[in-house]
Design a protein that fits this description.
Strands 8-7-6-9-10-11-14 form a seven-stranded mixed β-sheet, sandwiched between helices. It has about 625 residues and is of the alpha/beta class. It has four domains: about 80 residues, no CATH class; about 190 residues, Rossmann fold (3-Layer(aba) Sandwich), CATH 3.40.50; about 180 residues, Rossmann fold, CATH 3.40.50; about 90 residues, no CATH class.
Length: about 625
Amino acid sequence: MHTTMLRHDIPIFLRRYTDYDTANSIEARKYLKTYGLTPPAVESYDQQAARCMAILDAKPSPIEKYRYLSVLRNSNANIFYRLLSANVKELTPLIYTPTVGEACQKWSELYTFPEGMYLSYSDKGHLHSVIQNWPHEVEITVVTDGSRILGLGDLGINGMGIPVGKLSLYTACAGIHPKKTLPLCLDLGTGNEELRNDPLYMGSRRPKVTPDEEREFLDEMMSALTERWPSIVIQYEDFKNPFPSLERYQNTYTMFNDDIQGTGAVILAGFINAVKQSGTPAKDQRAVFLGAGSAGVGVAKQIVQFFINEGLTEDQARRCFWLVDSQGLVAHDRGKLADHKLYFARDDNEGKQYKSLEEVVDYVKPTILMGLSTIGGAFTPQILEKMATMNERPVVFPLSNPSSKSECTFEDAIKYTKGKCLFASGSPFPTLHHDGNDLVPGQGNNMYVFPGIGMGAILSKSVSVTQNMIYASAEALSTALLPEEVSQNWLYPAIGRIRDVSVIVTRGVIRAAQKDKVDRELALRNIGDEELDQYIRERMYDPFKEGERVENEIAELVGRPVNSKGKEEGNKANGAVGAGQSQQQRAKALSDTVPLEGKPTLLREVTGYTGSGASDGTPSGR
């Protein structure tokens, strides 16, 4: 006698991937034991999308749209990702920047349902046990301590919105299955006193732990994650001081920091294309960076490598940069500097201290102006006009997020440079009509590269994420434009092609891993690029095909082919069960089940069931 697991005892977050999809056929609903728990109609994607977009359009504000999409993601991931994949340009600003900034600020206030995992400092010494509670096999995690969320400062555990949103993009852009992602937020206290005094704040109310305490905690966390999932890719995000952890772990674990490396790579890709279009050779470029934090230094170091590849020595490349922080030009004779600023500190300022960005612009006469300062409007009309006076095609990259923190808008950049600038921003701006043309702003969004970096590391089974892999992601992205995009002076490909772009980036990352000999999937070394691209595509989660996958596996279990007429037959069957059959027929239709033993692949994927006869709904892999 076999034991049937009661699927109704399974928590909703274990069932959200397929169970309640209104596209499921009648047979699938019976198999999943959700027959009668969703409305009778078997819907097409067009029907699902029409409803979802109508609801979304009725929401009065971006944060309300964000909340609706969060509910959709948690109630039915397949529908959510179908919608996101088909409308990535329109929906990305709602699920990630800029809207995620407000969502994080209000995370505790708006909390509705569990998402991701929280590890608290009070769990120190027991992290291995806590991590065992996660019910799925994981390929990639995004982890933050909430100490520097976007340009909004220390938000503590309210920063969970960042890993959640980031991993949604890993799925939408690179096809990493949502079930195999882990949003992870570390509750290490907060230096934000207002949060600690907020009665609704859901994190611990202790001050931020010391750097030594954090390092010990991170050591334990990294060990626990890789003990549970030996091949996991670990991406760090929005740590106030990201350099120590990157330096400590990057050669020991398969990890990278998107703030430093991903930002650097995506900006480098746009920069490569801007240099080509500007007509100014690398050796003659002069770059002023407003912002000398982790992101600014990370971007500058990526560009240094590009200049070296263009024929400059490292010292020549380094001297193409002038960094500006809150005290002015970063120079050796200014006083004590943070360690990460020393590499680019100037020693040729002859004792003069340049206190403002405009003073530095007058002094340097830059060809490139980049902003990673989170100071909204810092690129003033006067500065933009000077850039246009000094250059035929000035490069203007206001990269800070969210939009309110951007150093200038696309409209201002075009207006005050008289349409001459090569522009890319960190946040989205609308298309602008100028001088008879519709100008499309480039957006240097990290989503162009981090999904491919993660997917490349997963598929190559890389033991680390090397600097060459990061650089390869930028090079690959710079080549991903179509001829018509190049002819319109775009710096980045259309975001609607993000899956195709991610394949190109993933391939570049895999090839770099092979070159550095950090890959473990050695068979991929023996196939050409075209075959590798096909290999990548075949391993991408496709929400449009999930229903077909479920149907095929059910058909295999039942031992008969799937009805080729599909949803029309499903709708007919629906009507028959509801009206045209006898009570005995309806009872039989409602009670039809498939034995769970035999070929439980689907059950393992959806619930963790192993076919061992467990009846308590406990997932495997604990």
